[in-house]
Here is the input.
Amino acid sequence: MEKVGVFLCHCDLNISGDVDVKKVLDAISQYPGVVYVEDCKDLCLPAGLDLIKKAIEEKGLKGVVLNSCSPGLHEGLYRQTVVSMGLSPYAYEIANLREVCGWPLVCDKEEATARAIQAIKASLNKLDWGEAVAPVSVPITKRALVIGGGIAGIQAALDIADGGYEVILVEKTSSIGGRMIQLSETFPTLDCPQCIETPRMVDVSQHPNIKLMAYCEVESLSGSAGNFTVKIRQKATYVDWSKCTGCGDCMEKCPYRRIPAEFDCYLGNRRAIYRPFPQAVPNRPIIDTKGCVRFLRAGAGDTRERCRACAIACQSDAIDFEMQDTFVEEKVGAIVVATGYDVFPKEKITEYPKDPDIIDGLQMERLLSSTGPTAGQMKRPSDGKVPQEVVFIQCVGSRDPAHYFPYCSRVCCMYTAKQAMLYKHAVHDGQAYVFYMDIRADGKGYEEFIQRAMEEDKVLYIRGRVSKIFRKGDKLMVWGIDTLSGNNVEIPADLVVLAVALVPSAGTKELAEKLGVAVDENGFMAEANAKLGTMESSTSGIYLAGMVQGLRDIPDSVQQAGGAASKVLDLFAKDEILLEPALVAATV
Amino acid sequence: MRIPYYPGCTLKTKAKNFEDSAVASLDSLGVQLAEMPVWNCCGTVYCLAVDETAHQLAPVRNLLRLKEQGESQVVSLCTMCYNSLKRANLLMKTDVEKRGKIVNFVSEGEGSYGGEVEVLHLLEVLRDEIGFERVRREVTKPLKGLKVAPYYGCLLLRPAEVAIDDPLRPTILEDLLVSLGAEAVDFPHKTECCGSFQTVNNVELVVECARRILDAAAEAGAEVMITSCPLCAFNLDHRQREIRKVYSDFRGMPVLYFTQLMAIALELGEGVCRFDLNHADPRPLLASKGVM
Amino acid sequence: MRVAVSTKTVRSQFVKRIGEISGQNILACYQCGLCSAGCPASGAMDVPPNQVMRLVQLGLEGEIAHSGTIWLCASCLKCSIRCPRGIDLARVMEALRLMILRKNIPHVDLSEIDREALLELPQVALVANFRKLTP
Here is the structure.
């Protein structure tokens, strides 16, 4: 190309410290087609951009090669500048002198300079080969898909729906509510989640803009930002929800009532036909084919007369044993992923034995919850006794790069303090002990909350870890250390609660693959930028909200969900999306 | 089947009860423990310094000998020997620099050794090469009703690279006991240290460690304890005398090598068991349980 | 009394040597205390193992030398396999012992053990003891 201008950014010292700028400019100014070379301290700042504009105007440049940091950072800005001067958006190239030339070869200036010259020459050649291509403009489907019906998904769905757009909320269990609805009370306000979350859940079910698809999962995804096609599997519930009135007679009559309930973290039982909890939204039951003997027998080829108790009890003729999974395809323009977390299985923490009275944090929530297996009464799992001495252990599996997870699970310090307090409120003369390494209480009102646990509820905080727990008759002997006094301690406990590490929910990796979204080294979905882009995934048009991107508490999850929703609303503010055309023709 | 066998110093004297019962038991299972023709001290404890090599000479010399004799495996009974040899073996496999220095020294520059010989503990051979099912079939006098506490100690399971089973939830001794027809009694301190070499100059420490272990086993209902290491056997068995001096109400129990129980279950006779070398005589208890 | 902590202590030759002999990253220890909680001998130690690590981090070798901790260690490796930071603490204890032993200062004096005891002890105990506690 003739009449090309070459601009070299020093990037303060990030480029000029590692690359010999003068040598580069000298070499390039000789290159055919180059009529203007200039260097400046910061090309991306207004002064730098003005230099480019001025040169295009005064020298009548037809093409521009900009040499700076990675195109990922300022490409948009440079393109805007070039286009504003009347040039085609494809009449410029960017050579990355920082991340590709300078930084990797910081110890070898000569090599870095040679590479820089090479990179610029390559960009100059590329200008010759570039042809202006008309960008494709595609109308945006102004409907959103939210995957996951926990508090983050609910918030995102409501915000987008309130913004005036249709939202499809897909939830894999039969009710929205997520983990929050399993909790007893939430820190630091001790609000009961049934009270504060259920109104939102009802809002979701009533909202004219929200299509709630519970007991559904994303099967596959195609398309791109603004134009996704998602295939959703509607799993067979074996109950026709349109006929069902939610009366609960089927559950009353189901003879199989000893199935460990997932919602109660297996501390209580449910029926084979069940609703996960009384305030479920949608308030409709499903049949668990692995627990219902009718289905188990059918699966085993047993042709005897099979149980129909629920069908007989149902006054609305809603039971349908022949139901199959079905599939629907929906077109959406943006996706928000809010699939949450699981608690790492405590059975895999081999330091501590398997014992019914050694439970994890989520199980403790169910014991403390008024909708739980003990109706909120503090009764320990093994014998129903009221525990007088409860030991809480923080950091079980977290902050342990040698055996489990290197990261901190973020919420355990706060929820442990809360559980200790709620235990004390339930058992007035009980004693709670918390083994901790550090106390992380950084939110609003959090530090005061911890102090309240220590001072008002007299929870004894012991700084140190527990090396051994073993049963001795009625008690669980907890052997730990108090590093602050230097004493090894032994506590005969009635109940032990482990704050086990939190992990991305089961199926996160598979879902990420379906969506084409990256995951980080710990399995959480990867954000676009750790500092400034936590609501966006690595894929355009797909946003992240809540624990799926990184562990956080409820206020932060709600905040992030609102942020993700606003990103979606940004996208929907336009009618069309410009698809970046990039065609490469190569002769081999 | 024949497998090269490294005895170590203690098995030839103070722990002859371990060796005799092991050799006889394995023989009746069709396995010949073929003692190495020439061997030296294994080093007993693996030196944990990374900046020196002198302490590795002893174990490596044995391993090099095995290689030169054309052997590809060696089995040890004594857990301390097992641990020392195995760790030295892994060092030879992974650290090329140290390997060069050490092997040059013990072979006058003539030999080469990169961890070619596999170091095994007898329990591994029983589990993986003979199989506990085979042991169960060969048992003619199942130790019915005998409540045995399986004591693992430290060096069978630590560090992770030499562990013969899960370091925190091992089951190999329990599996052996079940195959012998006995009742394995789980107790909380089965992987706690007995005090080890502190028994030479700090008997008080061993008294505390051993008492904790034996009391926990008794509380769990065990009548007898088994071990795989002569030092553990000394600390848990012989030191019961010292424990009684400090804790007059201490009851204790007989401590046997697992191979002694094997010999009884395989009905190989008292002779190979050498109970005279045990401190607490297990014969009255075993007789009262009807197993001998 | 105030203990002086400066580059003189935290970057002393002592700290450097402990790192070299043990091959461990002493600064990785975040003082969780799990080592001390599981150590079978910690009940008898005046300075528990996690505090010994702290003293190494601070470079306070005198305080370590005055305690009996490193000589009570039986190298049972419980601490090493449990440390969440992956520090092989047994190696650090060995390094602390060797810093003294290599100066030809034994911890155990053979002549102080009575003859009867010597005859009764299994060889493995004697050899192990002398390898660990004497130069």
In short: The radius of gyration of chain A is 30 Å. The interface with chain B takes residues 350-351, 468, 470-472, 477 of chain A (CB under 8 Å). The first strand of chain A starts at residue 4 and ends at 9.
